[in-house]
Design a protein that fits this description.
The protein is built from 4 helices and 4 strands. By secondary structure, the protein is α+β, with helices and mostly antiparallel strands. The chain folds into 2 domains: about 40 residues, no CATH class; about 100 residues, no CATH class. The chain has a 4-stranded antiparallel sheet with strand order 2-1-4-3, with helices on one face. The two termini are about 20 Å apart.
Length: about 140
């Protein structure tokens, strides 16, 4: 859809998508950041956020190096493209990374240039009285 067509329909589409009434939509439109995010968000439809397990030892959920949790550009987990079972604690490790990647993208910076793209589950590992440890790394790729 070209920009002129997009400009004509975006507010109606987002209002319907989020279930906003007229007053809520006007409040949403009043924040200029929201229009910027909507406009840039169109590009995110063609992106995938990949959270890859880069280290794993003693993981109760059996995550292994190379496992990939796939999210759409908006940060929604794509369950059909991800392992059948994902530990909530490995998933929570991805939250801050995905937020940072989104903010960088909206600022016009490639999220793959992020200097600190790794995070880990909060289990401290067997050496510190826990069970295991999983480290994940973020990347953003074009939708296949």
């Amino acid at each position: 859809m070209d920009k002129t067509s997009w400009d004509k329909v975006k507010w109606r589409l987002i209002g319907n998508h989020l279930g906003y009434g007229k007053e809520e939509l006007e409040l949403f439109k009043a924040n200029p950041r929201n229009e910027t995010v909507l406009d840039m968000g169109r590009e995110l439809q063609n992106k995938r956020i990949v959270i890859e397990v880069v280290e794993s030892h003693g993981c109760n959920s059996k995550h292994r190096i190379g496992d990939k949790f796939i999210f759409d550009g908006a940060g929604n987990l794509l369950t059909k493209d991800s392992p059948e079972k994902i530990c909530i604690f490995a998933l929570q490790a991805a939250t801050g990374l995905i937020f940072a990647a989104s903010e960088l993208f909206y600022a016009g910076v490639d999220p793959n240039q992020m200097k600190f793209r790794r995070s880990g589950c909060f289990d401290v590992g067997i050496q510190c009285g826990g069970w295991g440890k999983v480290i994940v790394e973020l990347s953003m790729a074009d939708k296949a």
